Amino acid sequence: MTRPITVGVDGSPASEAAADWAAEEAVRRRLPLRVVHAWQWEPMTVPVVNDRDEQAQWAQSLVREAGQRLAVRHPGLEITAAVLSGEPTTALVRANEDAELLVLGSRGHGALVGFLIGSHAQQVISRVARPVVSVRAPEDQEAARTDGEVVVGQQGSAEDSAAVLRFAFEAAAVRGAPLRAVRAWSLPPVFAYSPLSLRLADEAGGLEPYEKQQLAEALAPWREKFPQVPVREHVEIGSGGQVLLSQTAHAELLVLGRRVRRAPIGTRIGSVAHAALHHARCPVAVIPHD
Description:
Elements: E1 5-8, H1 13-29, E2 33-39, H2 52-73, E3 79-85, H3 88-97, E4 101-108, E5 115-116, H4 119-127, E6 132-136, E7 149-153, H5 162-175, E8 179-185, H6 195-203, H7 207-225, E9 231-237, H8 240-246, E10 251-259, H9 271-279, E11 284-289
Parallel strand pairs: 1-2, 1-4, 2-3, 4-6, 7-8, 7-10, 8-9, 10-11
Antiparallel strand pairs: 4-5, 6-11
Pfam family, one: Usp
Family: Belongs to the universal stress protein A family.
Protein name: Nucleotide-binding universal stress UspA family protein
């Protein structure tokens, strides 16, 4: 089954930017595009729109017009449009299940304050089992690139990061772009590393060479599979979010992983993903993995 790229729209500038990005990505990957709007009947206080049929018609016209606009820009692209019924977060999570990836817009509050991705978007990202891409509103993309690198954050072992690296290499390949692989590390507490880990680090010549070796080993199979993708490696001591964001000045896409796990209360996206989603200037792809 061919999975479409699905984009959620709500009429905002951010969702329009997300729709444009999703259409361009669908063209790159030769996939169909599905434009959706999650709609639930909610009586309003403004009498002129306090009508279920009018709200339903507005939702239908929203996805129809978005699809028509994209069809004009990409005449060869297969586009479908649909209104999803039900609570928005749940509806978008369901839409992600049969999509190659789900694209959502985010709204910004300036370079210093950072970005707000919205309660629905954050809940969706924390719950889905397939990739989600968050795209900034046009006014928040002043430093974004359309001809830059794909930056990927690599953590853990080669097995841990396989899904993230696969997505990043595929994204770089379809763009003809270089890939920058980033691994952050920190000095462990005295008892944080096992004796075996410390022995391996000692054999590698120290902790930093060990981290570089771990990154190189994780990249090796993907470099072999995508020999056309130039790869730059960056290993730096520091917090994952800060190190990753420091490497995105020339990025057109940032790719990072989110371990699938449930917090005691609800779900969470992790500190690195949270920092990237709120502060990165370029679109951010979050890839769930075990």
